[in-house]
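Hypothesis: this fold can be encoded by more than one sequence.
Test: take the structure tokens below, design a sequence, compare later.
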């Protein structure tokens, strides 16, 4: 069921602009919740079935093989499985088309992981875990350009920045970078991308998932200068997708929260989405 890189990446990019519904992920496991492996209600008894799309691309997965534990989302999935008591031999991967994961209806997975933002509309049809990744903003520039080597947000003060209207990226430019000149604001993201390609702007600010796509498929010889966190407003998060009313949700929430509190999610993020893949943190 392979589909083109562009279609998949565009889907990811669109997801990255979605608002968050905090009410969709507030349930948590109480002390009495049965979260031992033997007591979990699973699609396939004795095995944890995890869904994702195919092809599965970097940096979320490596070598189109979710089962190898490499890539951000493969690593997160196995970490959650471990918290639930499953070793790698007890995890089964299932191919699930991106939009099918959060469509209404019965699911053939225990949870799906595929850069799916938590939104109110989707939460009407499926359950989401507590967020496992808060989407960050990223700066993209032409490699070798004046700002391509910036190591801090302060170094971008004099840059002419391109950004799409009405996005969290625009708010981040104004509130966090605060450039000396107003950014060039475009009605469509493709127009902002074209402006960078034509060197009408020095840099482009988009969410990090979109930045991976821009540098891989849209603008030749471009690079991610770095990533940074937004402040203010409601954070945009990816969540694990489960069937509506899933009995697993409290236990999956508990697992995600445990990984957060132990710092494991932060370590996985740094390994697969940080400086190791050319997206260092800009302070």
């Amino acid at each position: 069921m392979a589909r083109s890189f562009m279609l998949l990446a565009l889907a990811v990019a669109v997801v990255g602009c979605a608002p968050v519904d905090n009410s969709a992920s507030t349930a948590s496991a109480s002390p009495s919740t049965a979260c031992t492996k033997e007591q979990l209600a699973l699609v396939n008894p004795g095995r944890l079935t995890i869904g994702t799309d195919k092809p599965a691309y970097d940096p979320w997965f490596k070598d189109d093989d979710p089962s190898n534990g490499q890539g951000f989302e493969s690593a997160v999935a196995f970490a959650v499985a471990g918290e639930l008591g499953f070793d790698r031999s007890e995890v089964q991967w299932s191919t699930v088309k991106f939009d099918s994961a959060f469509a209404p209806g019965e699911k053939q997975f225990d949870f799906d992981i595929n850069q799916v933002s938590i939104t109110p509309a989707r939460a009407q049809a499926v359950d989401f875990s507590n967020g496992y990744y808060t989407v960050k903003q990223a700066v993209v520039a032409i490699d070798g350009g004046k700002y391509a080597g910036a190591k801090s947000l302060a170094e971008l003060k004099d840059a002419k920045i391109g950004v799409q209207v009405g996005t969290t990226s625009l708010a981040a430019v104004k509130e966090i970078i605060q450039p000396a000149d107003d950014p060039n604001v475009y009605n469509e993201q493709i127009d902002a991308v074209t402006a960078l390609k034509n060197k009408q702007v020095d840099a482009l600010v988009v969410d990090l998932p979109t930045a991976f796509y821009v540098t891989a498929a849209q603008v030749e010889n471009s690079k991610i200068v770095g990533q940074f966190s937004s402040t203010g407003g409601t954070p945009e998060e990816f969540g694990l997708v489960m069937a509506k009313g899933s009995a697993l949700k409290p236990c999956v929430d508990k697992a995600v929260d445990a990984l957060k509190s132990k710092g494991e999610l932060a370590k996985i993020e740094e390994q697969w989405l940080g400086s190791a893949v050319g997206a260092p943190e800009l302070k």
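The chain has a mean pLDDT of 88. The chain is about 30% helix and 15% strand.
Hypothesis status: open.
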